[in-house]
Amino acid sequence: MTKIRQLICICLTLIIFKIDGQNIKVGSEKTNVYLPLLKNKNVAIVANQTSRIHNTHLVDSLVKLDISITKIFSPEHGFRGVEDAGAYIKNDKDQITNLKIVSLYGKNKKPKNEDLDSTDIIIFDIQDVGARFYTYISTLHYVMEACAENNIKLIVFDRPNPNGHYVDGPILDDKHKSFVGLHPIPIVHGMTIGEYAKMINGEKWIVKACDLKIITMDNYNRNMHYNLPVRPSPNLPNSKSINLYPSLCLFEGTNISVGRGTEYPFQHFGSPYLDSKYNFIPKSSFGSKNPKHKEKICYGTDLRFTDIYLTNLNLSWLINCYNESKNKNVFFNSFFDKLAGTDRLRLQIKEGMTEREIRKTWEQDLNKFKEIRKKYLIY
Predict the structure, then answer these.
(1) What confidence tens digit (pLDDT) does each residue in 95-105 have?
(2) pTM higher than 0.85, yes or no?
């Protein structure tokens, strides 16, 4: 009976997601707005598997519409979105269109001047999930910087932020700046990719402002549930994982597995060093060839069938795992402060502060960010 209720809950959630977001018209679908801008221009595209016009890839669609596509720039996970997190992405050639693919992940995170020869316009069309450490917004930063330096217009096709309904977390400290966090924003920023591009320009996070055009969405508001038609990266397979991602990703800076190498990444978590009845075994799989605790039994918590829909960052899972850890000296790794954007959160957890006490310490900075953010909101 319990399993039947769980299945009904999942089905209802999926139906709600579908109904709530079905009338959204994303930027890429508004061809009547942007095709005139592309006529007789040489166009480069920053894209991955989420870059689509309905069910057809954006690049394939524009080639059929006789738009002159010169090259493709590819972010983390690659152009077709099948590579592991952190995997080296090499330059390549698209097998369908025969277009050159230039990697923007690895050593080369920014388009080089020679890559932009004869380019008039760059289109950026990638689905974001609203977390500071989701690296596509860092790719956006470097693309904007390159466009500004080379006097190239950037057109951003806007898409919904599935975590756009809240803003939360500590603000990034400049000392902990990295590719998983370039700007002084909280972990969950509550902006679409188009709004975020406006903020990069407006807050002067690049030396010279980029010539920016946003192709906005129709019928979108940030409080609606939106079920992404394509997984945004290999380890975010569904709406549940995307909603849990900002909170669970902090475990990537610890010895806790978030389920990479299982069928349910970012929907359960655990490690060999915890005690629990629930367990799973990470194995080499799609999107995770060498997962944390590979082939080891991990004991932890299953969130798959809960009715949790997060509207703020959840720290309780992280704090509880630290408190229950058998060897606290090896719980955190060097990546944690980069993900958190500060060393304060790690130190606060070690000091035994409660979630409520920790939240109080970032409240003032978070409110300041929310005021700045208002200037750039479109929806």
Answers:
(1) 888 999 999 98
(2) yes
